[in-house]
Amino acid sequence: MWMIKFLNKETRYQVPRWWTHMSSNHDIVWLFQDDIQVPPDERFPFYLKLVRVAVLQLILLCAVAFLFGNGEYFYNECQRRKKCMTYCQEAYFPLLTCADSGYMLNYKGNEYRKLWSYPYYDNSEYRTCYGYMSDNPDYSTSEWDSDRQERLHTCFPACKTGNDSDYTDDTRPECTDSSTDPGMVCVRESDSCEQVYLPSRVGDVDGVSFDIGYAWIAIAIANCFQYIYLYILIFTLGLKSLSINNIKIGFMKCGVETVILVISGLCSLLIVYQATLIDAYGPSKEFWFTFFVAFMIDQSKSFVFHTGVWYFLFRRCGYLRTNEEDFIDPAWKHKDEQAQLSIRGQIAKIMETNQYKFCSMGFLGIYAVYVLAILSIGSNSILDIIDVSFIGVFLFEICVATWVNCMKNFMDLFNIFDAVIVSVSFILYFVGVGAKGLAVLRLLRLVRLIIVLRKVTANTQRKSSGYSTVYEESLAILRQLKNQKKLSFKQKKELNWVIGIIESGKLYDVVVAQQSDKGNGQVSQDNEGRKWINMATIIANDPLLWFDRDLDDYLYERQRDDEPEDNKDEFEEEIRQIIGISEKTHFQLEKIFDDIGKWRFNAFQYFDLCGPQVISHFIIRLFKLYDISRKFEIPMMSLKTFSTAIYEGYSSTNPYHNAIHAIDVAHKLNYFILTGDLMKYISDLDIMAALIAAIIHDFQHPGVTNEFLIKRSHSKAIRYNDFSVLERHHLASAFAALLDQSCDITINLTEDQYWLVRTTIVKMVLSTDLKLHDKTLGSFKNSRNIPNFPNNDKERQILMNIALRIADNGNPLQPQDLYFKWMALMMEEFYQQGDIEEHLNMELTAPFMDRKSTNPYTSQLAYIEVVVEPMVEIWIDFIPEVKEDIFTRGLLENKEALRQKSDTVPKMNNEEDTNEIDMKRKRKEGMLMEK
């Protein structure tokens, strides 16, 4: 379709967006996506789209079916065995003469052990089976194995002549009297028979399998006929007769439509006929699975192909920009067929009602009872019918929801999971997998009960809030909106600002907005007006209050957001030049930053993309995110030089305390600010200080603990009097780097601002000393109960200290795969210190530093229980928004995994158990580790 879509240059844009291109050309995407880029009179109704896609898939199914052929020949040959057994039993009834013979033989490579005796009987049926023996030499060589004949034999003589070389391993007796018919020995029906040959079979030959080779060949054949069909279809749609006198075009259009109808009908009849033959005689399970694999490969191929067409042909490898908006009539986006829109709207309203959701939950509950019945009593034909009826209802519900919501229905991962479970269950039922075998799979659908119940409860929470004022109700609505996960960072920031303005009573404050299109005189006048307003308000009473996000700052940001994308493009170009990364790498990094507010963050992948520029890119992008560079006039080159100096100060030989750990801690802190909503408690200057503290908190870390430096009387320990040795060194070295004029990012700060930033950073980094763990945690516990906490600089500092402390020790809170990677690096750094201490004949600083005897999983469990978990429990009580990420899916799952893994490590002896108990006691005293 895409070739025709762009022929008319007056109405078709030349470079569409990627999603528009895919929705115009990919079968499945086009089926469920509205054609807003096409005039309403040229759009396809949904049912016509469905017919077109169905015909295309019928062509593919037809190609697969005719590649398979059918197994009618093999089926008929194998049915001879059943016939002969029936003939024998009818002839000798009620005598049980047709019994196992006890013989075995090997004939032309096929071994037969299930042989039964068929004594001579003078009737036509016996002679028919006797005649089957004449076909034995004529069977072809098996396609499965060239060393044997096709395994289609039915009967053999009851004795051997001794001169037939085709028989080996033959236990039949020698023939004695040639005048008497000795009868036959025949193969039982249950013995394996020849099957249709699949050259590239994948899977279990006796179970479910498919042919990957046939899938690719079928796609190649089907695509040719599909393109012919589409060409005829497009040609037909292009035939428009504007006059009743133009009979030629009318006849042509009618004739082509007839051809399409005939082709569609013939294709349907052929595939029904061929599928029936395969289902009766051939490998039906392999046939349907091969078609399913071919369908998935074909759609994936189409997705990749059209993505390549869009990027390389339309965008010319990204050289051309999309110009879709210049050619689309805005009215097209909102105009659809009224009947379809009305039906969709009505169905959507019904599906949003609580009554529908409760009915859905009730139906799922009934299905749960059915699944438990299947698991307990087994399945039968009646239960199978009930099962497929349930699945049919679920599948219909998914189809309706997809039709109503289009591709938006699959933006939710649960809906994708739900659709996959139902579709797979439906397909497996028809290929012969029983209900009991799928019961556990379908039981997963019952998770929907929890999801639907949660949504219904959330919708009714506000209705049951009781009596409240308009002020309280408004704030409740805004907070509920803010908690929506689908909101962007910008939207959440705006809602935070609105809530803050309402709560602070600044709703009627006067402000002069800065307009970018005014002349210099007008801007100067506005600045003067703003100064007079500030002098007349509470802002004048606090020289640091303007650091917060006030109304003027908010209006500036709104004005900046409304400006064209040129500013954004300029910033991206600037950061690419300063950092020195390719456009492809920049694009990958921007995709990571789209999810920077989420808990999962793979710092290792980020480092692989950035390399030595990892800290520079990360801190510049975060400063851009919070607009810190503009607000405090931070020179971009100074920020780049400073962050490069910080990166160079981290030792790449440290397994754990390196630059990757620095950006990982900075991300956790950023997550607490964004998702944990710490922004409502701290100012932009605080955010700047917090991010700097995160990236320098382990600057120039030597890879050993404070205790090691103190025991060795290291020069750093002497310089800092054995107190927070490494933390003080991190701070002193980082601030020394700021003394270099090319690294000074604080050059445009006022003196008050500078000392506020420095004090905040110093206190935050010092709080990472584990010896101060109890003090840091105790301060937060005590201050937590203060009304309106935090309401001054001291309390804000306590909040920021605990935030960095948890970020620094937050590896056990991460997703399991990332946690165990960080855990291995942490333990390796401890082991390296243990190796050094052993080499220097020193007593080990801690027992868990001995790589020979330490159970790392038990050690980590103790670390979590003593250090991490107490902090997290009080932290999630303060910001419950992060509980699910860091506690439920983080800490609890990791603890359970550690317990399971610790059982796989041999237990220590009594002396080592004593050391383990002593280690826990030392941890409680704050002597476990530095990080």
Explain what this protein looks like in three dimensions:
Its EC number is 3.1.4.-. InterPro entries: Ion_trans_dom, PDEase, PDEase_catalytic_dom, PDEase_catalytic_dom_sf, PDEase_CS, Volt_channel_dom_sf. The active site is at 657 (proton donor). This protein has 5 domains: 24-71 and 198-299, no CATH class; 72-187, no CATH class; 338-460, Up-down Bundle (Four Helix Bundle (Hemerythrin (Met), subunit A)), CATH 1.20.120; 571-808, Orthogonal Bundle (Catalytic domain of cyclic nucleotide phosphodiesterase 4b2b); 813-931, no CATH class. Helices cover 62% and strands 3% of the residues. Helix 14 packs antiparallel against helix 15 and helix 33 (773-784) packs across helix 34. A 3-stranded antiparallel β-sheet has the order 2-1-5, with no helix packed on it. Strands 3-6-4 form a 3-stranded antiparallel β-sheet, with helices on one face. The protein has 931 residues and is an all-alpha fold.
Please state the CA-atom Rg, rounded to the nearest Å. Answer: 38 Å
Share of helical residues? 55-70%
Shape label: extended
Number of domains: 5
Q: Give the strand line-up of the largest sheet.
A: 2-1-5
What low-confidence regions span 5 or more consecutive residues with pLDDT below 50? 1-12, 334-341, 454-468, 510-524, 533-566, 908-914, 920-931
Largest sheet: 3 strands, antiparallel
In CATH terms, what is the architecture of the largest domain? Answer: Orthogonal Bundle
CATH class (first level) name of the largest domain: Mainly Alpha
Number of helices: 38
Total number of strands: 8
**Quaternary form:** single chain
Mean pLDDT, to the nearest integer, reads: 76
Intertermini distance = 60 Å
CATH-assigned homologous superfamily of the largest domain: 3'5'-cyclic nucleotide phosphodiesterase, catalytic domain
